[in-house]
Amino acid sequence: MAKQPYEPRMEPEKAPDALPETLDCIVAKGRTVVVNGKNCGPGAIIALPLEEALSLRALGFLVDDGAAVIATGDGPTFTTPEGVPSINKVA
Question: How far apart are CA 28 and CA 44, in angstroms?
């Protein structure tokens, strides 16, 4: 019987995880997310577990990093030069 050459037994390399355990996320405009008892308002960067981040992003509480933000106004203002609100009736 021929003797087989010695080959050291190597453990298969562990594949790196495709996704990290936590994600850094940005809170959407007009939303508040509570993280560890602390309120995080719009624009705050927070670290969340992957599943929670995906769920909150689907619900609109988080924005995608680098996504275009649609500018919105605060609405019209109706004031005169004196600063007194007025409405004029059109005939």
Answer: 8
User: Alpha-carbon distance 44 to 50, whole Å?
Assistant: 17
Distance between CA atoms of 9 and 4, rounded to whole angstroms? 14
- SS3 per-residue string spanning 46-91: EEEEHHHHHHHHHCCCEECCCCCCCCCCCCCCCCCCCCCCCCCCCC
* CB-CB neighbours of 28 under 10 Å: 20
Token pair for residue 50?
A: 């992957």
Neighbours of 44 (CB within 10 A): 15
Read off φ and ψ for residue 26, nearest 5 degrees.
-115, 130
Q: Is the pLDDT of residue 84 over 80?
A: no
- pTM for this prediction: 0.53
